[in-house]
Amino acid sequence: MSALGPRPAKGSDSPALAPPPDPRIERIKEILAQPVLASFIAGGVAGAVSRTVVSPLERLKILFQIQSVGRNEYKMPVHQALAKMWREEGFRGLMAGNGTNCIRIVPYSAVQFGAYNVYKRFFEETPGSPLGPYQRLFCGGLAGITSVTFTYPLDIVRTRLSIQSASFEALQRKTGEKLPGMASVMKTMYKDEGGFVALYRGILPTIAGVAPYVGLNFMVYEIMRTYFTPEGQKDPSAVGKLAAGAVSGAVAQTCTYPFDVLRRRFQINTMSGMGYQYSGIYDAIRQIIISEGVKGLYKGIVPNLLKVAPSMASSWLSFEMTRDLVMGKRKSTYL
């Protein structure tokens, strides 16, 4: 036996060879690696991860938002409100509405990231070339409108589920009374509140807020991503991506938050015991400012800012990791 030659496999005259790759599996990998489809899949994963991480703060934000003058059940600091939710409803209270939220956010986030990759192709000089800040803003806005339109009924049902077990005096129920689920709430809204139109109540202020929010989110993230990328490297580290996502989410949410308050108010506009009498967006803004002051347009922003940093940080990191995995990129590109 030559000391320089390769050692044959035991019981064989030649080294063992790896089996050839299955062409069907390779074809599936090739399809999944398409940028739009990979972004669609990664967006869905990112949405589920980010919303579950911050579910208690997301629910608390909604409870703060729909509290008008005269309702003080949750007029307290964030930590006290979270403790109140825990005492009265336990862990299920902290996560109330999260199942519906995940059912909504998976397609919402998937459509959003997938649509962004579709729209940006119209502005790329060459495939894969970077976009300018305003192009990212515009494409992100279009992606936000697209995702909202497809998933809005799930969003309005999620809002109803988030508040129906809260201890608002007007919503007090009999002890042991079973709360309706997603399908029941949607059916009741369709039957009693105006049919299909009821499932899209509040969509105009939603689009007015979501379009600039998503646009700013994509624009600021790409800018911050470059800022956190070490010199000589193509991508930032995982910590850098987390930081870029946190900054982008905070900036976008602060700039567009009043629209989010309006969205929640319109979503419960006809809900028994919690309804408001707003005839339109401008009337809602006028009434809120008159009765609650300008700060009424920013109700719930504290828990929202507390949750938006970990939410967007985990969302962007999950998105990039999943997308790179689906597209077959090496692990080092996101670690």
From TrEMBL:
Main subcellular location of this protein, as a coarse class: mitochondrion
Localization, UniProt: Mitochondrion inner membrane
One GO CC term on file: mitochondrial inner membrane
Keyword ATP-binding found: no
GO molecular function annotation: metal ion binding
Function: Mitochondrial transporter that mediates uptake of thiamine pyrophosphate (ThPP) into mitochondria.
Family membership noted in the UniProt record: Belongs to the mitochondrial carrier (TC 2.A.29) family.
Name of the protein in its database record: Mitochondrial thiamine pyrophosphate carrier 1
